Amino acid sequence: MKKVSLIAIDGPAGSGKSTVAREVAKRLGFLYIDTGAIYRALTLKAINEGLDFGDKEALIALSQRTDIELEDSSDFLKVYLDKKDVSEKIRMMEVSRKVKIVAALKGVRDNMVKLQRRLGRTSSGAVLEGRDIGTVVFPDAAHKFYLDATFETRAKRRFDELKKKGFGISLEEIKNDVETRDKTDMTRKVAPLKKAKDAIAIDTTNMTVEEVTKKVLWIVKSQR
Ligand code: CDP
Description:
Blueprint: E1 5-10, H1 17-28, E2 31-34, H2 35-48, H3 56-64, E3 68-72, E4 77-81, E5 84-85, H4 93-103, H5 106-121, E6 125-130, H6 133-137, E7 143-148, H7 151-164, H8 171-187, E8 200-203, H9 209-223
Parallel strand pairs: 1-6, 1-7, 2-6, 7-8
Antiparallel strand pairs: 3-4, 4-5
The chain binds cytidine-5'-diphosphate.
Cytidine-5'-diphosphate binds at residues 13, 18, 35-37, 39-40, 99-100, 103, 130-132, 181, 185.
């Protein structure tokens, strides 16, 4: 089988991993895979269908009959849910609040991980970012990173990002969302957010996107 070069970037909300992962992928000519967008798209479908979020079986069944595609356009990542562009909608607060419930289910994750592995393996090189890439999805990835920053910095980054996109959400709401999501993601039984033993940790609190990107690229080069 062809050897695919894979870069795994994990970390909590607002650690800067999406921006950095996309930039690294762009500069290396690799495919960019935002795995959070996949869980968000599925959550959006559950909301649209009025599913009961307490009904695990229904959520797992939904993950089996859902088609999710990612397309990296020049400006931003496009996310298609059953062929419809939902790139903007998946960033809604309601999705942010509910995605952790969907993402905590083993049956859902099994299906989503299959999709992520297929996407990664059929590329010639890919940067995948999420919570469990280095630990579960591609534990044998050639390059692994764990990005983090202080809670205040991460919440502020998320606030600025959503404000720029025109979402009218207060900093308090964002803090609340980031805090509860971190907690659920880190303490869930299946694929919790944690640093893979062999991942390189980068504290991005006082770093610009360009600085983090350069550091990641430099490490990747030196590991080749
Ligand atoms: O961009 P942000 O950090 O806010 O989150 P995201 O990457 O869009 O992921 C949204 C949620 O999906 C996370 O809070 C996790 O609950 C879940 N997720 C996951 O469980 N595993 C992944 N590999 C990626 C995301």
